Description:
Blueprint lengths: L5 H27 L10 E4 L6 H11 L5 E7 L3 E2 L2 E2 H10 L7 E6 L4 H15 L3 E7 L3 H11 L4 E7 L13 H19 L5
Parallel strand pairs: 1-2, 1-6, 2-5, 6-7
Antiparallel strand pairs: 3-4
Amino acid sequence: MRRPGTSKYAWFVAFALLAGLSVGLAARAGSFLLVDAPRPSDVILVLAGETERRPRRALELLAQGYGRRVVINVPAGAKVYEFSQVELAQKYIQNLQQAASVSICPIEGLSTKEESKDAERCLEREGAKSVLIVTSDYHTRRALDIFRHELPARKFSVAAARDDSYFGARWWQHRQWAKTFVDEWLRLLWWKLVDQWR
């Protein structure tokens, strides 16, 4: 015969274990987004988006011998005031010491999946069999997964460009980090559950 209150105690223990497990998983979920494992490659590919830390990280990797060329993806139709982003990127490259080793890849796509297809033309032109992707730290896992899925003939690795004002693995400590965390997890889930199957 069951003692009174045993069932309530069992439910309480089960709930406490589930809550503890959920908190533990949530605490590690920010780190799960981050992959920083660069490998020497034919080309270092900078994904479109953030324009300060990503190119700088790519140039550091170039100097360390991780690639022979840097290709920067730049939205073809985007403008900043009256200047196109392609024009601004060209001006940026002209002022670099490594200008001869850097080129622009104009892209049309607005998603990482579309960007991978646009970048394929430029990677083909460079004769790249192996590619080191450089993108924002929170975007590394999804970007690597997308490029491997969409361009299976090439080998990919990824390097993280960090921006502590925008994201950190302990995402709950700052409002902006939490917003970036939620946004990136939604995008990762959409990719895994929907977009990669289309």
